[in-house]
Amino acid sequence: GLRSNCISRAFLTKSSIRNFSAQIGSKLDGKIALITGAASGIGKEAAKKFINNGAKVVIADIQAQLGQETATELGTHASFISCDVSKESDIAHAVDYAVSQFGQLDIMFNNAGIACHTPPTIVDLDLAAFDRVMAINVRGVVAGIKHASRVMIPQGRGSILCTSSITGVMGGLAQHTYSISKSTVIGVMKSAAAELCRHGIRINCISPFAIPTSFVIDEMRVYFPGVNDRGLAKMIHDNGVLKGAICEPEDIANAALYLASDDAKYVSGHNLVVDGGFTSIKNLHF
Ligand code: NAD
Is 110 in contact with 37 (CB distance < 8 Å)? Predict the structure, then answer.
């Protein structure tokens, strides 16, 4: 199918064979996944990884044109549905779409999220902006869990993932509103895990280090207006902690693949931090 087509179209040098065999697997054969915020960044990379491991993926995103382009780029095992995660009816519709197209929902990845560009101090906190961010970063995740569970409980199985952040694990790394939203995602995940385990459904979080996706670059531009995008990406890489490695969307997609697959069949209620050791270091060099 799609995966063998990918191979036959590839320019088969020794290194491309090595790369393809590293990327392609069967850990999600026959599985149906819905990923929010998958038009770009981490969600797109996870969609690619899931498809290369045998899944069919519904890409749900607020950016209709980009989402459609992403689905086309990822091939026949990807389809797009327009979805604003802050609207419960959109989430319900996306879940129903996945089930009507493919008959089941095995993996729900609540990944969509936004940053918050308002002043960074507590006394200046903009509570209207707070409500907007919480509506997407937290309420959107809660709605995703609710509607995925509606389908997964009768199935008696499923894996739910949520994207948190290292800013949800530690204070002082981002604007309060964003940090609060991401720590709440971990709380939501744990609360849901306590109930969903009775139904054979696992739920976990992933907390990435900073990756120069459009999301982070947009945020950094506010604080470093004179630096171009390449310079901003370099600043993130230079502040990474794991010698010889940088945090890339594929690292998060690999974590998502693990948690979504049967490799993690006894893992639930867990927040998997993917940060090269950053949150373990006492004296950060920022
Ligand atoms: P990104 O901007 O590339 O992707 C985010 C996607 O979410 C976009 O496609 C966007 O259109 C979509 N989106 C935004 N609002 C939406 C809404 N209301 N409904 C549906 N879709 C919506 O950024 P990314 O880095 O891939 O971000 C993905 C997740 O990772 C976010 O939850 C973010 O908070 C989290 N995160 C990112 C980093 C990082 O360094 N990039 C670090 C930690 C956590």
Answer: no
User: Could you give the CA distance from residue 208 to residue 162 in angstroms, rounded to a whole number?
Assistant: 11
Q: How far is the CA of 36 from the centre of ligand 1 (A)?
A: 9
Active-site hit among 178, 223, 258, 266: 178
pTM of the full structure: 0.91
| Whole-number Å distance between alpha carbons of 230 and 79 | 31
Copy the structure tokens of residue 68.
């459609």
DSSP state of 62: S
What residue ranges line ligand 1, CB within 6 angstroms? 36-37, 39-43, 61-63, 83-86, 111-114, 136, 163, 165, 208, 210-211, 213-216
Please give the span between the terminal C-alpha atoms of the chain, in angstroms, as a whole number.
Answer: 48
Kindly give, in sequence order, each residue whose CB lies less than 8 Å from that of residue 247, ignoring residues fewer than 6 positions away: 208, 209, 210, 211, 236, 240, 274, 275, 276
Q: How far is CA 146 from CA 31, 70, 154, 176, in A?
A: 20, 26, 13, 26
- Half-sphere exposure for 145 (CA within 13 Å, toward CB): 26
What's the gap between Cα 24 and its chain centre?
20
What the block records as the tokens of 75 is 């091939």
- Pick from 263, 268, 252: which is nearest to 46 by CA? 252
Assembly ipTM: 0.99
Q: Burial, 60: exposed, middle or buried (Cβ in 10 Å; 0-12, 13-18, 19+)?
A: buried
Rounded mean pLDDT for each run of 10 residues along the chain, 286 residues in total: 40 46 83 98 98 98 98 98 98 98 98 89 94 98 99 98 96 91 98 98 96 85 84 79 82 98 98 92 60
Radius of gyration of the chain (CA): 19
Tell me which residue of 132, 92, 83, 89 sits closest to 111, measured CA to CA: 83
CA of 215 to the centre of ligand 1 (A): 6
Contact between 105 and 98 under an 8 Å Cβ cutoff? The reply is yes
